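USER: Fancy drafting a protein?

ASSISTANT:
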Amino acid sequence: MTTGNSNLPLVWDFIDRKKEVFTELADRVWETPETCYMETLSAAAHREMLETQGFRITGNVAGIPTALIGEAGEGGPVIAFLGEYDALAGLSQKAGLTQHDPMIPGANGHGCGHNLLGSASLLAATAVKDWLEKTGTPGRVRYYGCPAEEGGAAKAFMVRDGAFEDVDIAISWHPSNFAGVQRETSLANCRIDFTFTGRAAHASAVPELGRSALDAVELMSVGVNYMREHMPSESRIHYAVLDSGGISPNVVQAHAKVRYVVRSADLPGLFALIERVKKVAEGAALMTETKVESTILAGVSNLVVNTPLMDVMQDVWDSMGPPPFDATDIEFAEKIRATLTPEDIAASWNQERLEQRDVPLADFILPAHSENRQMGGSTDVGDVSWVVPTVQAYGATLAVGTQLHTWQVVAQGKSPLAHKGMVSVAKAMAATGLAAMTSDQLREAAWADLKKRRKGQDYKSPIPAGAEPPVAAMTLK
């Protein structure tokens, strides 16, 4: 299935006309890095751009103050572009430097490139909006401003709240070392707090009267570690002790809290693994004669890929080619690569199962493949992909070998090479959206593929009914 390229020059021209203002938007968000559910300035910047471009705006989506939707057009199919703008804690870094030098030690930084992610998605949505207006074609384009992808699962709350019920096709992307179609699935995951309550006592005078919540946390850790031998190899479990009960070793700790992240290849596997982890917690409580309560904070589904949409996006990328990097971009990328280890560089090629080459910037488009590959991470785009046919691109915004969630990503976040990669991926997304907007056949094929991949399973949110987005908890941090 091909795109029908007659519309592409016009929609790409709309992107070129406005790329400078959206580059400025990306830089503006880079300068105000905000984390999970606290993206007040970043969301405001995106809202301002939506207003300037003439979108109809809905705020406070799913009860999240920093989530918003911009819509344009009338009638016809609904094509959604997903944007993000949250940063990461502890990754502050001065832009354009090729050595680690935080702007503010310990402060936030855009170590996953989401300043670029939201801007490119909004640029693509704006180009499709301008095309609809120019051609008089019926159809609606939406930009979803999605906060808290990094651990907050905002899209999962938005899906559960029905924000995607009438969407026909969803499109997103992520900054990367390479340009092309993201064909890998992701892991479903869930974040759960386990709070143990025991009984305080003098640890020397009357230890028999105490019931240690800290002992329960430690025993739970031992139990989960033994589980690792007896769970699917692609599953992952990580944890962090949030509250060890105090700093006095001569007091039996009466309270302790531990947070677990449970990951699995798909939703059914995730639900099964969660129950096993809960049983370990109950066993730890039984052994220590303490009580345990569990609270699910957030959860995301595994990503469901879509072959018809991936094939169309592949056609678009192949017709475009890689971003137009120049000698200055290559020189900067070489300096970034000098800060990386050989293992960093090899990992980037290995993740895409490509033969390693000595190039600082990707000068090619990722080739298509039909293998069932899975990346190790998770994303709340997965929840959207369970209810709407979804396709994602990779945009070449980083020197080859750069690993996400590092200072090197932040250092490149305002660079000309990142801007070129951002504009290039906006063109790929806009062209894919236009193909979906104008082809009943493509939309029908995409929906048929989604139904086949779900294998008769209905979407079940990994977030329990009644759980609210942890906006207040994040704000209080």
In short: The radius of gyration is 23 Å. The longest strand covers residues 188-197. Residues 8-30 form the longest helix (23 residues). The chain has a mean pLDDT of 94.
